[in-house]
Each structure stands twice: as structure tokens, then as C-alpha cells.
Design brief:
The structure is a single chain. The chain has 566 residues and is of the alpha+beta class. The protein folds into three domains: 7-146, PH-domain like (Roll); 148-287 and 547-566, Rossmann fold (3-Layer(aba) Sandwich), CATH 3.40.50.10330; 295-539, Tumour Suppressor Smad4, CATH 2.60.200.40. The protein has helices spanning 129-144, 166-180, 195-203, 218-235, 264-270, 275-283, 313-322, 330-342, 373-387, 393-398, 448-456, 488-498, 501-509, 556-561, and strands at 7-15, 18-25, 28-33, 39-40, 47-48, 61-65, 69-74, 81-83, 89-91, 103-111, 117-125, 152-157, 184-189, 211-216, 253-258, 288-297, 300-305, 308-312, 346-354, 402-414, 438-444, 470-482, 523-525, 528-529, 535-546. Strands 12, 13, 14, 15, 16, 17, 18, 19, 20, 21, 22, 23, 24 and 25 form a 14-stranded mixed beta sheet that branches. Strands 1-2-3-6 form a four-stranded antiparallel beta sheet, covered by helices on one side. Strands 7-10-11 form a three-stranded antiparallel beta sheet, with helices on both faces. The chain binds ligand LXC25N3T, adenosine-5'-diphosphate and calcium ion. The ligand CCCCCCCCCCCCC/C=C/[C@@H](O)[C@H](COP(=O)(O)O)NC(=O)CCCCC binds at residues 217-219, 260-264, 307-308, 314, 317-318, 332, 336, 418, 420, 422-423, 427, 455-456, 458-459, 524, 526-527.
Amino acid sequence: MERPGRLLLLSELRVRNTAYDVSLSRSLLTWKRRISSPVYHPFRPRFCVPSFPRRPDSGVCHSVSVSEIISVREEEEENSSRQRDDGSWKKIKEREGKDCRQAFTVLYVERCRQHRWRCAEVTFTCPEEALYQRWVSSIREQLASITSRPKHLLVYINPYGGKRQGKHIYEQKVAPLFAQAGVSTHVIVTEYANYARDHLRTEAELKKFDGVVCVGGDGMFSEIIHGLIWRTQIDGSVDPNCPDQTLLPSSLHIGIIPAGSTDCICFATVGTNDPVTSALHIIVGDSQPMDVCSVHHNNTFLRYSVSLLGYGFYGDVLTDSERKRWMGPARYDLSGVKMFLTHHYYEGTVSYLPARGIVGTPRDAAKCRSGCVVCQHNGQLLSKRAENYTMDEDSESDGEWRTIRGKFLAINAASMSCACPRSPKGLSPAAHLADGTTDLILVRKCSRFDFLRHLLRHTSKDDQFDLTFVEVHRVRRFRFTPRYCQSDSDLELDLRENGKRQIFSQICRDHPACGCAPAYSSWNCDGEILTHTAIDVRVHCQLIKLFARGIEEPTVFEDLTNPCAI
Ligand SMILES: CCCCCCCCCCCCC/C=C/[C@@H](O)[C@H](COP(=O)(O)O)NC(=O)CCCCC
Ligand SMILES: Nc1ncnc2c1ncn2[C@@H]1O[C@H](COP(=O)(O)OP(=O)(O)O)[C@@H](O)[C@H]1O
Ligand SMILES: [Ca+2]
């Protein structure tokens, strides 16, 4: 827990008619109940309550970090009460022509189960108005000194994401919290796909805002980063089409109010997909850097990705599910079962540049958590390398490219854990949000039974990588070429390696009447289908910042004292 530091205020105030010692420092607001110690009175055969000064015992003590106070509300007259000369308290009557308010309410973050946050409140009553004024203005001064809190936000709502509840969720759960916290908003309900992206690219007056918030799923978040990153590069004269360019980071933070189907980006950065929790992380001005992959084809920019780039199984699930959008989030389950039964595999070549000199591997037991030291270390290392940047920086510092040819059921690149309600540990449980790498997971052709074992392990404690047909590499860059796109020399190499069998299978594949497996899948890029299959992917370390703090480890203290967490 935070140490209180020098006290700015210390007073006896009342909470629900009980006396508390309340203190405020630059970092903490603390209120501790004064429980009257019963003392024996020699002339009366019973215990009595002593008068002032009373000894505070080790009674109930609450502490709130100033950084997690949402706001202070001045209460109306009726709630005020006043201390009598004899030490007791009475309701005060309205004094004619005078402002004599004496109660104020502090709204603050309270931690609940499973990384959820709630807005809790406590009302303090002061014995006199001057003291009341000091308390209200001191807390407000402390809040005003936190410069990281957003004051003006640009909000985009996708009314068609998830269960089509985006607008309702924003209006009912989020807007009232922003209003209480004094955050002003400009809200835009999107009219069609890519509306938010194009608005951010060309029209939005970004200088007016401290951040951009999207209400929707991963697809909506993807629109926002495409608009923001593109705009930042064009404004800074950086060519987004060149895969070797170092991209400029966007200065605006991005907030996600989850209202989509998978909400993986929200879940993996906050630990839950709860709109109130996300709104509170935005209000307190949390900051979480995040890696972004750029995806190119033949030196032409295709897309950015922050969570999953999946070819084969996850690409096919997405393509199939888009035809079932009317079903809402359940479309993924149906398409998942269908694609599992279809059991398509795809041939191609994967080349990758292993991440060298960095801390962490995809098989680590430790996970990326709030204040992650792996992300901090690798972020510093990579930014130092970028300072001494040369065009062949990657090959010099990371070693040599490696190549794998084969038949794959799935090729996945997870730039973060990709934890979501379907798989709370995610596709790559030890992946990091901001370490400048992505975990390349290759699932080779295997039986349906074995693939099911692999998939089921995403939902249990068992290791999904501990299978002979699965390999995982932590990489900074990778390329994929499907077999049908391979150059003549690569195909010749294949022929020499695999013999005649390959020639016949290729003929068969080019012949739809055979009814055999298709030659190519498509890429699932954060839930959007990519138009190209041959791609070149590069990780840009900590390119964007979210209003989040990573998943917090629950502390023993919170579990014991917070009734909401039980
Ligand atoms: C038989 C048991 C199978 C259990 C498999 C569970 C594996 C789940 C891993 C899910 C990883 C999800 C990665 C995130 C992808 C999202 O970006 C994407 C779009 O989200 P949204 O815009 O909110 O709709 N979602 C998907 O591609 C859905 C994948 C579902 C796979 C079953
Ligand atoms: N007003 C709109 N009408 C139709 N599609 C939209 C609209 N706004 C955004 N979209 C698109 O909807 C798709 C899905 O959005 P998303 O918020 O991720 O929901 P889901 O999680 O259900 O997929 C994205 O491709 C996004 O570009
Ligand atoms: Ca990463």
C-alpha cells in the first residue's frame, strides 16, 4: 500500500453519524473510525463512554489513493449535521442568506472481483463550514494536479457491434461517470464501417482532445488505431507504406469501452470486459503502452494489428462467422465448431526473425501484469537500438532469419496474450503487451483429436504449446508465403525435399472438382479479414498508449478488507 507522506489535512469528521479521523496527504485519503474505549467508572457500576480526547483504536480504516479519487461532490443542506458543544452532533437548520453546507461526498475507485472496478462513495460531515471548505478545495487541488487525467474526449460508438448495445451501454453506464468526473465529451455514433477511421484520418480536430474512446469490439478499436496511426505518420511525413520505416507514436491515449463480440483487447489490457471498469480507468488517466504490428504486402501497407494475426483456423472461423453476423457473438462458437470439423490445413513458408537480447520467452510461467518489468526492460532496449538505427538494424541485433516450410492447421501471431472470456489465459499466456515482440505459434497438420486437445488447453491450466505438432517462437518480424504463391525456385526446393507426391497434391488442389482442401486461407487481423495471404509483419514497440494499466495482481490486503471482493 502507498505511504501517506506529509499530511495536508487531519480532522475529526463524521461518516454516517460516526466519528472518524480523516487525513489527506498528496497520495492518500484515509478515514479511520474512532471507537470509544469503554473505561470503568468507580462510582457507577457500569462502563461509560469517555469524552474528548478519545483514544482511536485499531478500528476500521479505509484508504484511497488520491490518484483513484473520481471527484468530490458538495452535498445539499439536508445532509449536514453539526457538533454540539457537548460533543454530540445534531442536524443544522438552514441559515438565512448564508451558504452553510457542511457535507461532501468523495467518489472513488473500489476494486471488486475479477479485476472489476466500481465507483464507491463516502460522505463526510464537517463540524463547521470553514473546515468543510478547506476539505473540498484541498481534495480538488490534489485532483487538479494530476496532469495525466483526460478533460476532453472524442468518443466513437459502433451501434452495431456485439449485441448492438453500444449506444445503450455508453449512455447508461459510461456518460454519467464522465459527467461526475468533469470529463467533457464529443460523441459520434458511427454511420457505417470505417466511419471512425476516416473521420480520424482527415477531419477530427485532434488538438482539442486528450484522448479517443471507442465503444465497440476489437474491430472498432482497430478502426481507431488505423485512423490515429495513419494521421500521425502523414502529419510527421513518415511513409506508412515502407515496412522498414520507424513509425511515429501517437500522442493521444485510446480508451476502450467494451461492447463487442470478443473484446479481447480490452480483456487482455484490463483483465475484464466491463464498461464501468474501463470508464474508470479512462477517468483516472491510466496509461498502458502497447505494441503494434504493421502488415505489408509487396511494400504496400495492408493493416495494423495489436492482438491476433491468424491464418488457417482463426482466419476461416472469421470468414465463416461474418456471414452469420445476425447471430451476434454466438456466431464465433458456431463457426468455430464448423471449422474444427472441416479440419483444413494449408501449405506455405514462414520466415521469422527471432527476438534476441530481450527478456522473456513464450513458455514463461510469469505473465505480463501491471507495471511489467519485462515490457519496461525490452522497451528501453529496443528504443536504444532504434536510436542507432540502420536499415539492416533487425538482422544485426536480432540474428538471422529462419525459415519453416510445412502444412499448418493454424499460424497465429499473438502480440499480447489475447485473453478473452472464451479463453481467460489466451492464445499465448506469457505474451507481453509492450515488449516489442509477437509470439508466432505454428500448429502443424495433425489429427482432429490432437487439434481438439490443443484447442481445449486454451481453456484449462494445461500448456497448449506442450504438444509435438505445436511450436512457438518470440519474434520481431515474420513473413508468410502460401505455397501457391511461392517462387519457382522455392517450389523446386519443395519438390526436391518432398518428391513426386507434392506434384500430384498440387494438381489436385488446383482442381475444384476433387473436393479436396482449399489452397489458401485468409488472415484474421484483430477480427478483420485481410485481402492478401502473402504478408510481411513487423512489430513496432510501444507505438500506442491505452487508458489502461495492464492486469493487476490482486493483493491480499484488498481481498481481506474489501467486502465487494468477497
Ligand atoms: C473446443 C473448444 C475451443 C476453445 C478455443 C478457445 C480459443 C479461443 C481463443 C480466442 C482468441 C481470440 C483472439 C481475438 C480475436 C478478436 O480480435 C476477434 C474479433 O473480435 P471482435 O471484433 O470483438 O468480434 N475475434 C475472433 O476472431 C473470434 C475468434 C473465436 C474463435 C473461436
Ligand atoms: N455504423 C456501423 N455500421 C456497420 N458497421 C460498422 C459501423 N461502425 C463500425 N462498424 C464495423 O463493424 C465491425 C465490427 O465492429 P466491432 O465493434 O468490432 O463489433 P464485433 O465485436 O461484434 O465484431 C467493424 O468492422 C467495424 O468497422
Ligand atoms: Ca508484445
